[in-house]
């Protein structure tokens, strides 16, 4: 499967003292498990400086095939479509709503561990409060033959992209942004 994952509220807890990557309980072990048989992509809203910091912190983990940071939240749905994601995990209901609207075949998971007003059920999205629930849910869907070949999976391993309004991206037409990071150096494409 191709799995898109947000950072804030999914990998980083909200209103925590340390706000460190992977401080959401069991997130790191769950991602290690998922990355062994799936393609994982960061798809997160961020300003450029924070995107660069997160990129360099996350690339060291070796868990993600690529990282996509957008400066406009509505671009997330376009990135999901561009990557051909089967799954998107986010903590904001309006974003998973947009993903579902633009990509009706994508399984959307609303990670609501830190949401103040938790939903009991939702007709469009799967609701979870922990990474253990994410693993259980995805194990259920593994039987649907959503795997991607190793050749396809690792095609962009280690890349990071920052997509901004200045790069001329529109919601309906996704074009990877002007700035791309590689583990070895920062350069423009």
Please name the defining characteristics of this protein.
single chain; 189 residues; alpha/beta; Rossmann fold; 9-stranded mixed β-sheet; 6 helices; 29% helix; globular; disordered C terminus
Notes on the structure:
Strands 6-5-4-1-2-3-7-8-9 form a 9-stranded mixed sheet, with helices on both faces. The chain is of the alpha/beta class. α3 (75-83) packs across α4 (93-102). It has helices at residues 27-35, 48-59, 75-83, 93-102, 131-141, 150-153, and strands spanning 2-5, 39-45, 66-70, 87-90, 107-111, 126-128, 159-163, 179-181, 186-188. Helices cover 29% and strands 21% of the residues. It is built from 6 helices and 9 strands.
Tell how many strands the DSSP assignment holds.
9
Low-confidence stretches: 145-156, 168-178, 183-189
Sheet with the most strands: spatial strand order: 6-5-4-1-2-3-7-8-9
* Count of runs of 4 or more consecutive helical residues: 6
Q: What number of structural domains do the residues give?
A: 1
* pLDDT averaged residue by residue: 78
Backbone CA Rg? 15 Å
What pattern of helices and strands is seen along the backbone? EHEHEHEHEEHHEEE
Q: In the CATH hierarchy, what is the superfamily?
A: HAD superfamily/HAD-like
**Main beta sheet:** 9 strands, mixed
Shape: globular
What is the end-to-end distance?
28 Å
Give the proportion of residues in helices. 25-40%
CATH class: Alpha Beta
The second-level CATH architecture is 3-Layer(aba) Sandwich
Tell me the fraction of residues in β-strands, as a range: 15-25%
Query: Helix/strand/pairing class, anyone?
Result: alpha/beta
């Amino acid at each position: 499967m191709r799995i898109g994952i947000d950072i804030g509220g999914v990998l980083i807890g909200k209103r925590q003292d340390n706000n460190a990557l992977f401080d959401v309980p069991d997130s790191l072990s769950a991602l290690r498990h998922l990355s062994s048989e799936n393609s994982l992509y960061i798809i997160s809203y961020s300003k450029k400086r924070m995107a660069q910091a997160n990129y360099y912190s996350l690339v060291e983990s070796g868990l993600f095939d690529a990282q996509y940071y957008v400066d406009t939240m509505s671009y997330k749905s376009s990135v999901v479509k561009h990557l051909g994601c089967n799954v998107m995990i986010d903590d904001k209901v309006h974003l998973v709503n947009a993903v579902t609207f633009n990509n009706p075949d994508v399984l959307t998971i609303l990670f609501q561990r830190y949401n103040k007003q938790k939903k009991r059920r939702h007709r469009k999205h799967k609701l979870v409060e922990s990474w253990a629930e994410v693993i259980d849910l995805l194990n259920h869907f593994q039987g649907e033959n959503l795997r991607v070949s190793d050749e396809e999976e690792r095609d962009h391993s280690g890349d990071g992209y920052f997509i901004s309004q200045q790069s001329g991206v529109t919601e309906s037409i996704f074009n990877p942004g002007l700035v791309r990071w590689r583990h070895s150096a920062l350069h423009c494409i």
